[in-house]
Amino acid sequence: MILLNLVNQYGADIVRLWATSVAYQQDVRISDEIMKQVAEGYRKIRNTMRFVLGNLNDFKASDLVEIKDLPGVDQYMLAKLNELMKAYDEAYANYDFATANQEILNYFTNTLSSFYMDFTKDILYIEDANSPRRRQVQTVLYHHAKTMMKLLSTVLVFTAEELHDHFHCDENKAESIFLEPKYELFDIENEEEVLAYFSKFMEVRKDVLKSMEGLRNEKLIKSNMETKVTLSLKDEYKDIAQLRR
After folding, report:
1. Can you state the percent helix, strand and coil of the chain, rounding each to 5?
2. What is the dihedral of CA 223, 220, 203, 117, to 10 degrees?
C-alpha cells in the first residue's frame, strides 16, 4: 500500500530512481524530504533532455558532422560522455546503482547544463538554421540524446520510452528504446590531450566564475553578463588563450 501511494504521488519512474539511489546494504530510509530531493533530480534530467530534443527538431542523422571535424569543445563533450559511459558501466558491474545514478545527475548538472548548454543556446537560437556551427552543436546534442536515452532506460523506463518516441532525428530508430543497441564509446583522436586541455580551461573558468560571484555578492553587478573579463594566465595556462568559441 505504501509503495502504491508513492507511485500515485510521484510516479513510477521517480520511485524507481529512489529505489536505485539508496544504499541497499543497510536499512533503507524514506521520507517526504528524501522523495522531494529525488523528484528534483528527476526534473533536472527531464528538463535537460527536453532542451536537447527541442533543439534537434530540425536535425536529421544525415546532418551529422564527423567527430574529427568538430571544434575542440565539442570533442571535449563527447570525451566527457565517454567517461560517463565508462563510469556508469563500472558502477553497474559492481551493483553500485546509487553511484550510477549520481554519475548521470552530476553530468547533467555540472557538464551538460551549466557548461555546454549555457553558451551553445546562443548558437542554437541565433545562428542560421543550417550554419556549420549550429550543425556541429546539434551533432553533440544528437549523440547525447542517443546515449542518454539508453543510460536512463535502465531505471527511468517510462521516461526513456517517452523520450525515444519524441526523438525524430533517426529515421531508422527501433520501435522501442529497449530494442536499440547498447551505447558505444566515441572514437576521438587525441582524446587524452583534449581532456587535459579543457581540464585546464575548466580550472580557469572556475576561478572566473568565483570572482563574478564575489562581485554579485558585493552588489557591484547584478549579472555575469555585465562583466568584461581580462585574463592574466600563468605559463602553464598560456595555451588557453588560443581557445575560441
Report:
1. 70, 0, 30
2. 0
Residue type, 96: D
Task: Kindly report, residue by residue over 160-203, the tens digit of the pLDDT.
Answer: 999 999 999 998 899 999 999 999 999 999 999 999 999 988 88
What are the backbone angles phi and psi of residue 169, rounded to the nearest 5°? -80, -30
Cell of 171: 529515421
Q: How many CB atoms lie within 10 A of CB 128?
A: 8
Which of 100 and 243 is assigned the larger pLDDT?
Answer: 100
Q: What's the grid cell of residue 116?
A: 555546454
Element at 188 (helix H, strand E): none
Rounded average pLDDT over 15-43: 87
DSSP assignment string, 213-241: HHHHHTTS-SSGGG--------GGGGGGG
* Residues 6+ positions from 66 with CB-CB distance below 8 Å: none
Given a cut of 90, whether residue 218 has pLDDT beyond it is no
CB 168 within 8 A of CB 55: no
pLDDT tens-digit map of 146-156 = 999 999 999 99
Backbone angles phi, psi at 66, to 5 degrees: -60, 140
Distance CA(19)–CA(29), nearest Å, equals 10
pTM for the whole thing?
A: 0.90
Could you tell me the three cell numbers for 15?
A: 520511485
Closest to 141 measured CA to CA, from 15, 56, 33: 56
